[in-house]
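Quick illustration, no need to memorize.
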Amino acid sequence: MDSKRLMKRYNIHVCYISWGIGGKKRPAVILSEDDEKGECLILGITSKYKDKSPQIQAKRLPIQDWEVAGLNMPSYIHLEIIEMNVKNIDIIPIGKLSERDSKVVSEIIGE
């Protein structure tokens, strides 16, 4: 399957996101389609917010239309851009950000 055809901006895919020693599969928003090196830019998605510190909460954006986006529960976009090899991303999208949520992300990340 051709990843370029399915990995479109603001689609949500499941990715393996590592944070050093460990990591896990989690949904993520695609910011850029894969390039010639097989890399793309993503923003991770989490459902964790309430129990996090104010510093971490400040880096999380609520997804207003989380059900429309294909997510199972209220979720937040972690506002830290990650460069990801497409081999760590499930090719089939699970959803797409709504136009409203896409616009907010675009304004915040300066695009």
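Strands lie at 11-18, 23-30, 39-46, 60-62, 76-85, 95-96.
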